[in-house]
Amino acid sequence: MMMMMSACWRSSSTSAKLLQFLLLPLFLVSVYVSLVRPPRSSPVSVDVWPSGLPLRWSKDSAAAPEAPPPFLIITPSQSPSPSPSPVDDIASKDGGVDLVDKNFTAHAPSMSNSHGLPAPEVRIKEYTSLERLEAGLRRARSVIRQARDGNRTQDQDYVPVGPMYWNAVAFHRSYLEMEKTFKVFVYDEGDPPVFHSGPCKSIYSMEGNFIHMMEVNTQFRTNDPKRAHVFFLPFSVAMLVQYVYIRNSHDFGPIKRTVVDYIDVLSRKYPYWNRSSGLDHFMLACHDWGPETSTAVQNLYKNSIRVLCNANTSEGFNPSKDVSFPEINLLTGSTHGLLGGPSPSRRPILAFFAGGLHGPIRPILLQHWENKDDDMKVYKYLPKGMSYYDMLRKTRYCLCPSGYEVASPRVVEAIYTGCVPVLISDHYVAPFSDVLNWRSFSVEVPVSEIPNLKRILEGISSRQYIRMQRRVALIRRHFEVNWPPKRYDVFHMILHSVWLRRLNVKVG
Ligand SMILES: *[C@@H]1O[C@H](CO)[C@@H](O)[C@H](O)[C@H]1NC(C)=O
Ligand SMILES: *[C@@H]1O[C@H](CO)[C@@H](O)[C@H](O)[C@H]1NC(C)=O
Ligand SMILES: *[C@@H]1O[C@H](CO)[C@@H](O)[C@H](O)[C@H]1NC(C)=O
Ligand SMILES: *[C@@H]1O[C@H](CO)[C@@H](O)[C@H](O)[C@H]1NC(C)=O
Fold first, then answer.
1. Considering its fold, how many domains does the chain have in total?
2. Taxonomically, which superkingdom (predicted)?
């Protein structure tokens, strides 16, 4: 199994940097000073959606968000902070955690000292490891809430700044809390290639990449399930489709039975699935069939954190519980040669798209723009002799219409090459939109506005374009795939999305 597990890993050269990951959080925590409220510093526009999800381009976006905002999605500092959760019984008011070891007797802090009386001896409740974990999460929540209005924290690698973030300071604090606290238990059961393995190339590459990165991780992975905040179900839907599905059978049965059996085994062998009804478990899928696969077990669909490329809110994707997984088409298994592109002045083409007529949206795009306008380079498949990546680098706005599923690898391709992505989709939740304000570096166009596409793009001033283009370059790090992973890269951002979802629920 170890051999299989290192399949993606082999493409990397060194793992020396891992040590750095282990030491940094300690350093950072000691640097963070206090939470006194300064004047607000992050200039976030006021017209943002308080749920932390980006607004759509359309004016008729009065349509309500499809899910109520979870209380810890990282929103701009202008939004009122949510009232503290009623379950803050262990964490003290200032966010400190008053946990003590079993059998420990202590003086209750400042209980009656102001009256000069001796503090009474108080027998402190015995806490289970789960209560401890929950208390740690409550402390982290409290620290992150306070950071919304606080000063920036030092960070030798990167300090998130700018309008690309709903609230850069809160995100930074949350990220550092994750590094300090977060532990993931990966179930050992199951054999490759369906379990503990996944594709490292192709548009499903993030399945394999994440699974492998998680399995070899030493910072976040714990072998002690008692210390885990979340439990990872390490199956690959792309592998289930390849090895378990009977080709052309149109029968989901074998795939679903595999998942049912897997969770059945885990829920008999360990107490954790039953304990939370799956709330603190997560699965991932980039394959289109991810959402359908997750319906095999009701609690997996309903309760667990589903990390899905196919983040279609009309198909049950719930942004407050589920995580939008970036789809990254790694043809060679690495991003080598894909990153970077010229400045705005060296991008003569207004808009570009080339691709198959997959799904319901692209035919509409082609119908309106194929061979219609010299500024709109819209092709059904790439014309002979044209280089796809050259075109991305020569273009100001890269069109990313949904295909068979809502996510498109074009979004990350655009970000890699410094082309401002134009998201043309309905019901899509973009990756990391709990943290990133997509409107600041991309254009979102609902399908109904496709006929007005050119007018919309030309209506963006060149000053605004230059700002967006610069921001695309700045947030690129959050989408980069590194071996081994680097802080703030795509692996860590996905993990951070899971961390945020876990902070929002209480187990036990
Ligand atoms: C926050 O920043 C301000 C201005 O730089 C500084 O005066 C203040 O002491 C800082 N507060 C904390 C808690 O670090
Ligand atoms: C608590 O103390 C009792 C008696 O001293 C001992 O038997 C027990 O093992 C202790 N429990 C723990 C969790 O340390
Ligand atoms: C979890 O619940 C299932 C179904 O009720 C049961 O079969 C299983 O034994 C339980 N697991 C544990 C560890 O108790
Ligand atoms: C999203 O889900 C809805 C409802 O099932 C479906 O009609 C639509 O085609 C989906 N979008 C894409 C791009 O797959």
1. 2
2. Eukaryota
* Ligand in nearest proximity to the CA of 36: 1
User: If you measure from the C-alpha of residue 467 to the centroid of ligand 3, how many angstroms do you get, rounded to a whole number?
Assistant: 55
Domain-embedded: residue 324: yes
pLDDT tens, position by position, 421-468 = 999 999 999 999 999 999 999 999 999 999 999 999 999 999 999 999
The pTM assigned to this predicted structure is 0.79
Residues 465, 495, single domain; the answer is no
User: Which pLDDT tens digit goes with each residue over 33-65?
Assistant: 222 223 333 322 222 222 332 222 222 233 333
Q: Residues 187, 299: one domain?
A: yes
Which residue's CA is the closest to the ligand 2 atom numbered 5?
103
Residue 436 DSSP label = B
Look at residue 270 and tell me if it is in a domain.
yes
Residue nearest to atom 10 of ligand 3 (CA): 268
Specify whether the CB–CB gap between 400 and 424 falls below 8 A.
yes
My answer on whether 251 and 280 are in the same domain is yes
Q: How far is CA 435 from CA 60, 73, 130, 419, 481, in A?
A: 24, 7, 28, 21, 19
Whether 406 is in the pocket of ligand 4, judged by its Cβ within 6 Å, is yes
- Domain assignment present for 446: yes
Residue with CA closest to ligand 1 atom 5: 151
Domain that holds residue 277: 2-21+182-331+487-503
